[in-house]
């Protein structure tokens, strides 16, 4: 994340020393916790590059508005991550214990709610009226995708097709990772976002999420989350759904038995067996191949969508960033 975004976030959120009450000092520290853990800032960077592509120049008043939109995206991601970690009962976030693991679910949930409110304050400071509808749409789509994900886990639903997973990813990942940042950048520049942003962002977002699912199984020095956590949490992924289509009945029975259990009750031995079966089945390679194809399709659509952007140099930077994101090089 750019230093100026970190500075604006610190300016927006309350200073822990601003209260004499230790309880509120704790709340204010919790609000700053996930933002201070860093992260790549891919969504805010994409949004700022999109703003530049549509004519917003650094050091201008319009650039300051774009920076506040970028802070809005960063705060959105952080409060959603707090809630997501609670919903999934995750152990870690960005290499440290998840907020609810440190402070308990009630305090972490409240901190996420408070951070959500500060997100709207950042959006207010941006003073880009058209951005309100875009941010609302982003929240609606993300909530719909998250609901699909959580409802399938709660209902022990495995009678799903790859198309079901891709619909969930479009809503939960693609919209706020690619589509909304691109659209918000254009709006910051006073331009109507190209309609093709949605198709391009859907393909690129799917490629990103599938690669993230793959890395969760096989690991990588750049991967900052718990290896195998998706399997423990019973996440529906393209890898699992394709494996289930042809899994031997004995392996399928072990899988379904384990998936009915809470995370903490799952057998470590059975989890090791399942990881081995998944890796040996070819489902991982199949998912990677699909991600490759979606990445190339999305990049072609995005290149066409940006062909008329006023700043070709910024458009080229967007293509480079999205190429790295979709191929999981960023």
Provide a compact summary of the structure:
With 330 residues, this protein is mainly alpha-helical. It contains 15 helices and two strands.
Q: What order do the helices and strands come in, and which of them pair?
A:
Blueprint: H1 3-12, H2 22-36, H3 42-53, H4 61-88, E1 92-93, E2 96-97, H5 99-103, H6 105-126, H7 130-154, H8 162-188, H9 196-218, H10 229-232, H11 238-246, H12 249-259, H13 268-281, H14 283-305, H15 312-326
Overview of the molecule:
This protein is mainly α and 330 residues long. The protein has a single domain (3-326), classed as Farnesyl Diphosphate Synthase, CATH 1.10.600. It is built from 15 helices and 2 strands. Helix 3 packs antiparallel against helix 4 (61-88) and helix 12 packs across helix 13 (268-281). The chain is globular and about 65 Å long. The protein starts with a helix and ends with a helix.
Question: Which segments are poorly predicted (pLDDT under 50) over 5 or more consecutive residues?
Answer: none
For the record, the CATH class is: Mainly Alpha
- Classify the fold: give the CATH topology: Farnesyl Diphosphate Synthase
Mean pLDDT: 93
Q: Key features?
A:
mainly alpha; 330 residues; Farnesyl Diphosphate Synthase; single chain; two-stranded antiparallel ribbon; 2 strands; 15 helices
């Amino acid at each position: 994340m750019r230093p100026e975004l970190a500075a604006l976030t610190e300016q927006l959120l309350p200073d822990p020393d601003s209260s004499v009450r230790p309880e509120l000092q704790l709340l204010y520290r919790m609000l700053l916790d996930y933002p201070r853990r860093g992260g790549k800032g891919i969504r805010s960077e994409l949004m700022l590059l999109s703003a530049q592509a549509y004519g917003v120049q650094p050091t201008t008043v319009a650039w300051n508005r774009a920076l506040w939109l970028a802070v809005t995206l960063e705060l959105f991601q952080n409060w959603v991550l707090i809630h997501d970690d609670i919903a999934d009962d995750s152990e870690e976030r960005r290499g440290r214990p998840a907020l609810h693991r440190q402070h308990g679910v009630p305090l972490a949930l409240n901190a996420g709610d408070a951070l959500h409110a500060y997100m709207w304050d950042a959006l207010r400071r941006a003073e880009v009226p058209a951005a309100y509808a875009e941010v609302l749409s982003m929240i609606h789509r993300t909530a719909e995708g998250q609901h699909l994900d959580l409802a399938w886990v709660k209902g022990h639903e495995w009678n799903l097709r790859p198309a079901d997973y891709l619909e969930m990813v479009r809503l939960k990942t693609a919209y706020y990772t690619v589509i909304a940042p691109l659209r918000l950048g254009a709006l910051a520049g006073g331009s109507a976002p190209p309609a093709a942003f949605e198709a391009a962002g859907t393909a690129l977002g799917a490629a990103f999420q599938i690669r993230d699912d793959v890395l969760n199984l096989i690991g990588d020095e750049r991967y900052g989350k718990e290896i195998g956590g998706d399997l423990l949490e019973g996440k529906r992924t393209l890898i699992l759904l394709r494996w289930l289509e042809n899994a031997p009945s004995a392996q399928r029975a072990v899988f379904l038995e384990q998936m009915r259990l809470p995370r903490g009750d799952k057998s470590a031995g059975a989890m090791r067996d399942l990881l081995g079966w998944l890796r040996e089945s070819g489902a991982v390679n199949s998912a990677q191949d699909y991600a490759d194809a979606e990445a190339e399709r999305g990049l072609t659509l995005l290149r066409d969508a940006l062909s008329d952007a006023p700043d070709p140099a910024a458009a080229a930077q967007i293509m480079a960033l999205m190429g790295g994101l979709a191929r999981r090089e960023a």
